Amino acid sequence: MRIPDSRVPNVIQTVGDQIRLRRLTEGLTQAQLAQMIGVTETAVGQWEGNKRTPSSRFLRNVHSFLAGVSHPTPGLRSGTTPVF
Predict the structure, then answer these.
(1) Domain 5-67 listed as CATH 3.40.50.300
(2) What is the largest CA-CA distance in the chain?
(3) What is the pTM assigned to this prediction?
(4) pLDDT per residue over 53-84, tens digit each?
């Protein structure tokens, strides 16, 4: 899948850049990714905007997502932390 250049940084240097690129490649919205990882959509937006980095509580889930590990079906209850 080709992603429009304006949405992808030229050089991927941060965790936020990596999350954004992977999310766009997978065709996910920030809300969908947030639900899969167990965080809020705001958190994903802050990561992608390089305003914050994922807390240690969610690093395993973020790493699994970036590594392309199969993830559970979306629809987790708010506040749950999926184990990949």
Answers:
(1) no
(2) 36
(3) 0.69
(4) 999 999 899 999 999 875 544 444 444 444 43
